[in-house]
Amino acid sequence: MKSQTEKTTPSVLLVSVDALKPEFVFEQERLGVSLPNITHYFVNGGLTARNGMKSVFPTFTYPCHQSMITGTNPAVHGTVNNGIFDPMGKHLGAWHWFVNSKVKTLWEAAKEAGYCSASVAFPTSVGAKGDYIAPEYWWDGSSLDSRFIDAVAVPQGLIAEMEQTIGQYAGGLDLSDDGDAQRGKAALWVLQHKVAPHAEAGQPFFMSAYFASFDESAHQHGVYSREAAESLQKIDLMLGELIEEAQRISGGNLVVCVVSDHGSLDNTHNICPNVLLREAGLIETDEAGKITCWKAFSQRAGGTAEIRLANPEDTETAKVLAQVMHQLAEDPQSGILQVLTGEEARKRGGFPEAAYVLVSKKGYEIRDDVSGAYCRTTLTQKAQHGYSEEFPEMRASFMITGTDIKPGHIEGVRLIDVAPTLAAIMGISLPDAEGKNVLEQGAEA
Q1: Is residue 416 a contact partner of residue 67, using CB atoms and an 8 Å limit?
Q2: How far is CA 424 from each of CA 332, 369, 416, 419, 436, rounded to the nearest angstrom?
Q3: Between the N and C ends of the chain, which has fewer C-beta atoms within 10 Å?
Q4: Is the pTM of this model over 0.70?
Q5: What's the first-to-final CA gap in the chain, in angstroms?
Q6: How many whole angstroms separate alpha carbon 81 and alpha carbon 130?
């Protein structure tokens, strides 16, 4: 078998740094952040989208990551929000942890093409078809998480074996710096103990990894807070370790792509459309405020909300809902930038089951509360995403370096271009992808 260095197709490492805005990469001094590894590998030696990459609709973590790994929009792959639509709470806060069942992922395509396919902590990876999949999932944040994750890992037992070396694997509830430190250790462990033997035998690899703490620190302290900057600097150090190890085991025949799912912006208000739906008689609650019946419900996605009808054939409810939507659209104090029909939302690539979609103004985070004031200045989170994909603040990062990658600047990159671009590098096909291989357009000086 040929050695890795003799192969024409390189190994590929994809790393998602949640909510990394391009300005943190290219304006480090202004923002008081130092990212030596990102600077070395990408700013100085890679192909980068200095003006950012356009995200999808909504600019929310789980839809974005499934778009990133499939090259399709949320309306196509079906992961339209972080949480499952569940007004009555029957699913106990479940998220869309699972890989989609509609279109092919890069993990599956790489494996079919003879690559060793691996992933660590990547959102929407439960059930992914690969060789070594350590997915993101949680139950209660305790050691039970490890047992559940181990049960759905590929192969089963992967997490238990890993934890003998690194300690508890970070479930999806631990978005702290410490949680990311465990994600970094887990990714290194998978590279060293599972992927390396394949690479040493001449088999290229595709591996995805994920870091969450920058996004979480921004949520809690603000986009430009010292806490967020410190989280990002810690991620940069772990990124350097991952790249160095991936280069070693690939014999240098490696492409590294670092991206984010979306940007973020600081909030000023919380707004609660369900309060208006309840006042209109479309939501009923008991004395404790728990929903007992709903005819229409608004589920948040940060700066966006999807509103569904319990019965799309209920014309009377549809009329009442239309009145509430008109009220929000016409009220300059509502915090709503756009009220989209379901069809308009689908054309933007999101929410195929929605009756309406609300897109809020900058700073107006949408919440799911059904009681209290509609508009509040007491914030749940200091920063948020999910806002319009057209906002410059929601632009994501795109950086790529390695074998046959010409350094420079590239324009017009979209999140749905990530998967087809990496697929082209590996010489594989993603037949469902809506995006394109951005390397075909070349770099600008």
Answers
A1: yes
A2: 47, 45, 14, 9, 9
A3: C
A4: yes
A5: 39
A6: 24
Contact 430, 419 (CB under 8 A): yes
Packed helices 158-166 and 144-152: angle between N→C axes, nearest 10 degrees? 130
β pairing state of 205-211 and 116-120: parallel
Q: What is the dihedral of CA 334, 335, 337, 341, to 10 degrees?
A: -60
Rg (CA), the chain: 22
If one counts every other C-beta atom within 10 angstroms of the C-beta of residue 313, the result is 7
pLDDT string in tens for the chain (445-residue length) = 334 444 579 999 999 999 999 999 999 999 999 999 999 999 999 999 999 999 999 999 999 999 999 999 999 999 999 999 999 999 999 999 999 999 999 999 999 999 999 999 999 999 999 999 999 999 999 999 999 999 999 999 999 999 999 999 998 999 999 999 999 999 999 999 999 999 999 999 999 999 999 999 999 999 999 999 999 999 999 999 999 999 999 999 999 999 999 999 999 999 999 999 999 999 999 998 899 999 999 999 999 999 999 999 999 999 999 999 999 999 999 999 999 999 999 999 999 999 999 999 999 999 999 999 999 999 999 999 999 999 999 999 999 999 999 999 999 999 999 999 999 999 999 999 999 999 997 656 4
- Token match 């990124």: residue? 239
The token pair that represents 342 in the structure block: 């379901």
Helix (H) or strand (E) holding 206: strand 205-211
What one-letter code names the amino acid at 126? V
Q: Which two tokens stand for residue 198?
A: 């394949």
376 contact partners, CB below 8 Å, separation of at least 6:
269, 270, 271, 272
Q: Can you spell out the DSSP letters for 350-374?
A: --TT-SEEEEEPTTEEE----SS-S
- The tokens of 111 are what? 């494996």
* Residue 123 contacts residue 136 (beta carbons within 8 Å): yes
Tokens of 105: 């992922």
